[in-house]
Amino acid sequence: MVRELERKSQSAEFPVTAPAANPVFFRTYSRRNDLGMRESWNKVCERTINGLVELGKLTPQEAELLTKMERSIKALPSGRWLWVGGTDWIKKPTNFSGGYNCTSTNLEDWKAFGLMMDLAMMGCGTGAILEAKYISKLPPIRNKLSVILQGEIGKTNLERRREETEVVQIEANQVTIYVGDSRQGWVKSYQTLLELSTDERFTDEVKVIVDLSDVRKAGETLKGFGGVANPVKLPELYTKCASILNKAIGRQLNSVECCLLIDQAAVCIVAGNIRRSAGMRQGASDDTLFADAKANLWQQDAEGNWRIDPERDALRMANHTRVFHRKPTLSECIDAVRKQYYSGEGAIQWAGEAVARSNCDLLSTKELKIDFLKAYSQGQAKQWLQERHPNIDDNELEHRLGRFGLNPCGEIIGSNFFCNLAEVHLNLLDPDNYKEQEEAFTAAALSVAALLHHKFLEPRYQYSRTLDPIVGVSFTGLFDFFVHAFGVDWLRWWEQGRPETPQGVIFKAKEQEYLNHWKNIVHKAVWEYCDRHGLKRPNRCTTVQPSGTKSLLTGASPGWHPPKAQRFIRRITCRKNDPVALACLDYGYPIVPSQSDKDENGNLLNDPFDPRCTEWLVEIPVAVSWADIPGADKIDISKFNALAQTDFYMQVQKSYVTHNTSATIELRENEIEILGTRIYEAIRDDEGYISAALLARFDDLQTFPRLPFEPISKEKYEQLSQEVERRRNTDDFYDALRKYDFGEMSEAGPAGCDSDKCMMPEQSPN
To answer: What is the CATH number of the domain that holds 106?
Structure first.
């Protein structure tokens, strides 16, 4: 059966079990060549592999292995590398950061804000730690800012535009910022505004004139990174940031104000079509302002209409996580689960486990780790390390104890880090072919290790890379792999809640055997590569990312998660009249307006060609690779309970992952206390729990119309598939795309985070 999955469609690109692959690939990963044509999958493989070979100084044998695994889609580099790998743009040191999905920055100076905007504009997911020990280093706000916008966007001719932002102090308390037409220009103008609020040269209210004349108008091409410009929200960035700063005059910023300043930049970037945003904001567990930052974000008027608080709207750009440096109590865990169920926010992180995993080179035995965790929970971790490792200097000690930073989806842990990811598509691997599995995980390991040659211009990031180099080899399709390996009995065991029955014990042992085997392959390959190239060995190399988008290239169930159903409608978002969407029509897939398109009465539009429609959803019937296994149809995946999901997630966390596992546990209301108790126990007993996202599960999926996933019956799937075949005008998707493909894509590569949680509609509070 697994060999059958490798059969290619007539486009000779993707498996037939991945009907969403072509739309997703051409929308998200395919770049334009010099003639304006989009790359084929083969061209993307050629570009990205050549880039890895050059950067990583790979041998011919290593290059051959990467080529074999990537072209067959069994092991892929990161989504970022699929977009920029091998381009001239990524070869410039100022752009090295753009090759990484995962980052985290300690927010301790104004430059950190600028760095985060810079990262977001390059497509990196941005994590930020906003604990008092960092944000207290920011100077108090002393100057009131009065922002005046001047100059029409796009006014200056291309030949005369400033590339760099120029700041001119005309009078004692007046400054003009001429915004440069570049990524660095936008960033400098933003960071300069923040710096002016604390600049001691000024004696009174500062009049800040922001001149936008040199900024290119909407629709112009971004030649290096790709995509098109759209500075629609840029003017608001300066006025809204000034408003936030002015409210803090005479004191330091609090954590929520810091969030808002970061998120206003994110709003500007997302609106500019530069990327979909992904952010993680970490605040201290005792920071009540941070904990309640999104409380009552949605408000209802007397007529029952919902509105969002405009002053806090930007907070939706990132997930908020509360960091516990002590072990949370049972009631704190249950309350956190309850809050997440009703609002989608309030996740907790046990920092001790993250720091322990990040220092596994010093905690070489289980006993040492347990002893360290005890010291950490009592606030004595620093003394513990100093007593046992007196030669560690203060800077390294601070870095080691600060390695609880998370990237947006929480699968990487570290401090001021960049981490490169790769992904093995387990759904295409034969469970009995251990040589093939070794090749896939080795190829993934080589693709992440190659980027360890990067040296960053920013000192805080380079110090972290030197001291704590990290990589992340992930996988997707684990659930599919185990169904193929163990059969329908494994599904029935899941249905029972994964109990500790004799058969369950056998299943868990076999799962653990595979997971440990893959982890060992990765570490062996990364460490041997680093030894040959004189690079410091990373002490943690394995993770599991959400993989919501790349999984669609092979039809894999995302990450470790079960699929939504055996068969479902998958809806892919495109802008109206996007060439990819028009090609989907020719290919037989129906299109409907998105959730955001409504008539004057608030009803969803039904006609995608309605003039009021701005965004399309392509509807694709999908079946998992094992849907037709006898007996599989009788298993209702939606009934898998929260404890069973947590049990499987923790199996992955303990047996494969050395960073953290990106997890979205779906739960029903009656499972709140049960799951809260289980999380408490996992932290209390040092089982390896760090943090997980929780998502409310509703049995009535029609509560939210036109979701990314809609489970359907076998009969409905077959009906929809037959209708697609009848409507299909071509068997070559690429050929259909070329009919419509004029002009530039609005997308600029994949988002820094594409978990299912990010794709669900935001819930209003009950």
So the answer is: 3.30.1620.10
Q: Could you tell me if 230 and 166 lie in one domain?
A: yes
Ordered DSSP codes for 545-565: ---TTGGGGTTPPSTTSPPS-
In angstroms, the first-to-last Cα distance of the chain is 46
Q: How far is CA 389 from the centre of its chain?
A: 35
Report d(CA 605, CA 675) in Å as an integer: 39
411/349 Cα distance (integer angstroms): 12
Query: Are 674 and 747 within one domain?
Result: no
Point out the domain boundary residue: 277, 301, 326.
277
CB atoms near residue 204 (< 10 Å): 9
Q: What is the DSSP letter of 349?
A: E
Q: 597: Cβ–Cβ under 8 A, 6 or more apart, which residues?
A: 604, 605, 610, 612, 613, 614, 615
pLDDT in tens, 718-746: 999 999 999 999 999 998 998 888 654 44
Q: Are 651 and 513 in contact, with CB atoms under 8 Å apart? A: no
Each residue of 585-625: pLDDT tens digit?
Answer: 999 999 999 888 888 888 889 999 999 999 999 999 999 99
Same domain, 253 and 302: no
Tokens matching residue 679: 């999380």
**β-strand partners of 616:** 574, 593
Residues 6+ apart with CB under 8 A from 509: none
Closest to 104 (Cα-Cα) out of 397, 350, 415, 395: 415
What does the CA dihedral 569, 572, 573, 576 come to, rounded to 10 degrees? -90
Answer whether 411's CB lies under 8 Å from 660's CB: yes
> Cβ(521)–Cβ(69) under 8 Å?
no
And the tokens for 568? Answer: 């479902």
In the predicted model, what is the mean pLDDT of the chain? 90
Same domain, 344 and 207: no
**Residue 49 lies inside a defined structural domain of this protein:** no
Last residue of a domain, one of 243, 277, 311: 277
What are the distances in angstroms from CA 300 to CA 304, 308, 309, 762? 6, 9, 10, 15
Q: Given this model, what pLDDT does residue 583 score?
A: 95
Contact at 8 Å (CB) between 90 and 51? yes
Whole-angstrom distance, CA of residue 298 vs CA of residue 306: 6
Q: Is 68 a member of any domain?
A: no
Q: What is the pTM of this model?
A: 0.93
Q: How far is CA 633 from CA 2, 499, 626, 627, in A?
A: 19, 21, 10, 7
What is the domain count for the chain?
A: 3
Question: In this structure, are residues 214 and 161 in contact, taking their beta carbons and an 8 Å threshold?
Answer: yes
Grade residue 97 by pLDDT with cuts at 50, 70 and 90.
Answer: very high
Domain that holds residue 116: 102-277
Q: How far apart are CA 497 and CA 505, in angstroms?
A: 13
* SS3 annotation, 444-481: HHHHHHHHHHCCCCCHHHHHHHHHCCCEEEEEECHHHH
Shared domain for 265 and 244, answered yes or no, is: yes
| Structure tokens that stand for 427 in this block | 């759904």
- Alpha-carbon span 213 to 166, nearest angstrom: 12
Contact 101, 410 (CB under 8 A): no
Sign of CA dihedral 148, 154, 156, 161: positive
Nearest Cα neighbor of 197 from 236, 137, 252 is: 252
| 711 shares a domain with 572 | yes
Look up residue 163 and give its two tokens.
Answer: 């590339």
Instruction: Please state, in angstroms and rounded to a whole number, the distance separating the CA atoms of residues 78 and 551.
Output: 12
Q: What is the pLDDT of residue 700?
A: 64
The answer to whether residues 689 and 720 belong to one domain is: no
Task: Indicate whether 232 and 254 sit together in one domain.
Answer: yes
305 assigned to some structural domain? yes
